[in-house]
Specification:
The chain has 370 residues and is of the alpha+beta class. The chain has helices spanning 20-23, 26-36, 79-92, 102-105, 122-126, 138-142, 151-162, 179-193, 197-208, 263-277, 286-294, 347-365; strands at 40-47, 50-57, 72-74, 213-214, 228-229, 239-240, 259-262, 304-307, 314-320, 326-332, 337-343. It folds into 2 domains: 20-79 and 200-365, Beta-lactamase, CATH 3.40.710; 82-195, 3-Layer(aba) Sandwich (Beta-lactamase). The radius of gyration is 20 Å and the shape is globular. InterPro entries: AmpC-like (IPR050491), Beta-lactam-related (IPR001466), Beta-lactam/transpept-like (IPR012338).
Length: 370
């Protein structure tokens, strides 16, 4: 079994047709599919006034049905950007603060956590600075006790368990990346909103007009793209993940990485962020987007960040994968552009293909290289 690897009506102009300026990039995309032996590869170039798309390949390796850019693809840990987005809205509404302590919001935890966790806040959890263990591998998750009840009840049980464990040692200074921390953050959001995280995502996306699903796309519809994995790191051929295979993300960890969306819907979500970073308020205030992307060094709230060598211009990004899909998101506010590249495969070849296509698009649409 494979293991876990490393959210008011507002409409934006969207160009669903591949623009002429992207036509010359199609051979690059097609070549990357062949070189890395991945089933499909899709990309969105996101600008303030429109979104253009590239796509190629198939929904399932060895089957003729072509992948469409309107298909659902699993975005993995890019889900963290959805969870932080929902948190930001609740902060703006005054229902919670970034510095709200976990134990104050979830009183069942008082007196039942290690002293190292006594003062951790929503901001600490969303920025991976709470010291929560990663829960990013099968053995680590398999060692957890069984939790029962509703998903929200499972998140409380998970909190009671993990907050008795010794803290994680930061291995990505200044933060220690943690899927578990996002489950605890979601628990806080559930308490102040009186809705489950799943309900919060559904209500938010219904308001914005975005489609989404929790879990792998082919679990609900076998005609949707199948995820593909490498049975071992030495494999060179991807195996399609059948709907009946029980591999999944534990439901209480879903806020860290278990949303699937069609590329146009996810690209519109990223476009909201790009506009916000360009000081155009929309669903959130412009200053809130700045905080989400750049409010802390290296990793803010659902978004990693850095600067280009030489120019010092800032970028933000996130990757998402559970070994069967790979999604790479990258924003360059100074150039008024963002990119999403996604494939229905996981592992090193999938990451290499997504990064290579993003580098190609970065050269074409910005003055920067990485």
């Amino acid at each position: 079994m494979k293991y876990l690897a490393s959210v008011f009506a507002f409409c934006l102009p969207v160009n669903f047709a591949q623009g002429q300026s992207l036509a010359s990039s199609q051979p690059t995309l097609d070549s990357l599919i062949q070189v890395h032996r991945i089933p499909a590869l899709l990309a969105a170039v996101i600008e303030p006034t429109g979104i253009r798309y590239l796509h190629g390949g198939v929904r399932q390796q060895g089957k003729p049905a072509p992948a469409a850019f309107t298909d659902f693809f699993h975005i993995g840990s890019n889900t963290k950007g959805i969870t932080s987005f929902i948190a930001a809205k609740l902060v703006e509404q005054g229902k919670i603060r970034w510095d709200s302590p976990l134990a104050a919001i979830v009183p069942e935890l008082r007196g039942k956590v290690r002293t190292e966790y006594a003062a951790i806040t929503l901001a600490d959890l969303l920025s991976h600075r709470a010291g929560i263990r990663p829960y990013a591998s099968g053995p680590e998750i398999d060692a957890l006790p069984s939790f029962s009840g509703s998903i929200s009840q499972k998140r409380l049980q998970f909190a009671l368990h993990t907050l008795q464990e010794s803290p994680a040692v930061p291995n990505q200074s200044p933060f220690a990346y943690s899927n578990g921390g996002y489950a605890l953050a979601a628990l806080m959001l559930e308490r102040v909103s009186h809705r489950s995280w799943e309900e919060l995502v559904a209500r938010t996306f219904r308001t914005l007009g975005y489609r989404h699903r929790i879990g792998f796309p082919n679990r609900q519809d076998a005609t949707q793209p199948w995820g593909h994995w490498l049975e071992s790191p030495t494999d060179s051929v991807f195996t399609a993940l059948e709907p009946s295979i029980p591999y999944h993300i534990q439901d209480f960890l879903a806020p860290s990485g278990d949303v699937a969306m069609p590329l146009p819907d996810y690209a519109r979500f990223v476009q909201l962020h790009l506009l916000g970073l360009l000081e155009q308020a929309n669903y959130l205030r412009a200053a809130t987007y700045q905080q989400l992307h750049f409010g802390q060094e290296a990793y803010a709230y659902g978004w990693g960040n850095g600067t280009f060598t030489g120019s010092g211009a800032r970028f933000s990004f996130h990757d998402g994968t559970v070994g069967t899909f790979f999604c790479h998101t990258f924003t360059v506010p100074s150039q008024k552009v963002a990119f999403v590249v996604i494939t229905n495969a996981g592992g090193a070849p999938a990451q290499a293909a997504c990064y290579a296509l993003r580098r190609h698009l970065l050269r074409r649409f910005t003055a920067h290289t990485l």
